[in-house]
């Protein structure tokens, strides 16, 4: 499956274009929302939308620039989607960023009486729909929300949309590996980062 895109020769990606393509990070769904159309490169004959790699890379850079302003304990990354659990747990292991893999208990961010009450300054979710309870709580207390969004996602109440395949194990593994690696690099801890993409990816 050749999904080569017409990328300018001057474009520098965070990882080689081929690495992005092999992970399927650009493969969307057959459904596209109006908001996500700006990130779509083309629609394949089988009806699947293909996301623009350059725009994916640009948005990941914006995400990294934003996250680098925060300490790991001030960031919460949530993934209700099981395909993201290994990736977010490795994000925690390699950077110290707080994560919730699995069900988010409503009130975790808003109710100090809860045993699992957590205070953070910014929230990242793997999918705006299954992670909507996290987003709703974050909005209540005015936290910025970053969300990975596929072609079928709505972008309501999201401060920064990161386009990409947020359902596949390989794409989520690669995405969170990039986030962890580059976050550590921006924190001056690049030499401490030894994990491979495979460490972030479920078999």
Q: Would you kindly provide a written description of the structure presented here, covering whatever features stand out?
A:
The protein is α/β, with parallel strands linked by helices and 203 residues long. The strands form 2 sheets. A 5-stranded parallel beta sheet has the order 4-3-5-6-7. Strands 1-2 form a two-stranded antiparallel sheet. 32% of the residues lie in helices and 14% in strands. The protein has a single domain, classed as Rossmann fold, CATH 3.40.50.10490.
Overview features:
Rossmann fold, alpha/beta, five-stranded parallel β-sheet, globular, two-stranded antiparallel ribbon, 203 residues
Can you summarize this structure?
The chain has one domain (about 15-185): Rossmann fold, CATH 3.40.50.10490. With about 200 residues, the protein is of the alpha/beta class. The protein contains 6 helices and 7 strands; from the N terminus they run αββαβαββαββαα.
Layout of secondary structure:
Elements: H1 17-23, E1 40-43, E2 49-51, H2 53-67, E3 75-79, H3 85-95, E4 98-101, E5 122-125, H4 132-140, E6 145-149, E7 160-163, H5 169-186, H6 197-200
List SSEs in N-to-C order.
Answer: HEEHEHEEHEEHH
Summarize model confidence as the mean pLDDT. Answer: 94
CATH superfamily grouping: Glucose-6-phosphate isomerase like protein, domain 1
Radius of gyration: 16 Å
- Tell me the name of the CATH class: Alpha Beta
For the termini, the CA-CA separation is 21 Å
The shape is globular
How large is the count of helical segments? 6
The CATH topology: Rossmann fold
Q: Order of strands side by side in the largest beta sheet? A: 4-3-5-6-7
Major β-sheet, in short? 5 strands, parallel
Helical percentage: 25-40%
Backbone structural class: alpha/beta
Low-confidence stretches: none
């Amino acid at each position: 499956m050749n999904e080569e895109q017409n990328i300018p020769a001057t474009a520098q990606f965070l990882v080689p274009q081929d690495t992005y393509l092999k992970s399927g990070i650009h493969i969307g769904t057959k459904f596209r929302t109006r908001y996500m159309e700006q990130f779509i490169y083309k629609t394949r004959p089988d009806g699947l939308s293909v996301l623009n790699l350059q725009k994916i890379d640009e948005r990941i850079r914006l995400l990294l620039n934003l996250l680098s302003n925060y300490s790991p304990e001030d960031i919460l990354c949530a993934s209700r989607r099981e395909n993201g659990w290994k990736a977010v747990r490795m994000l925690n292991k390699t950077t110290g960023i707080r994560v919730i893999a699995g069900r988010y208990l409503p009130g975790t961010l808003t109710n100090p009486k809860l045993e699992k009450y957590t205070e953070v300054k910014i929230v990242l979710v793997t999918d705006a729909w299954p992670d909507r309870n996290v987003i709703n709580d974050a909005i209540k207390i005015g936290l910025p929300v970053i969300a990975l969004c596929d072609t079928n996602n709505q972008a309501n109440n999201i401060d920064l949309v990161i386009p990409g395949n947020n359902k596949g194990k390989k794409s989520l593994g690669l995405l969170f590996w990039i986030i962890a690696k580059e976050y550590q690099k921006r924190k001056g801890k690049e030499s401490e980062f030894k994990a491979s993409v495979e460490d972030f990816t479920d078999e």
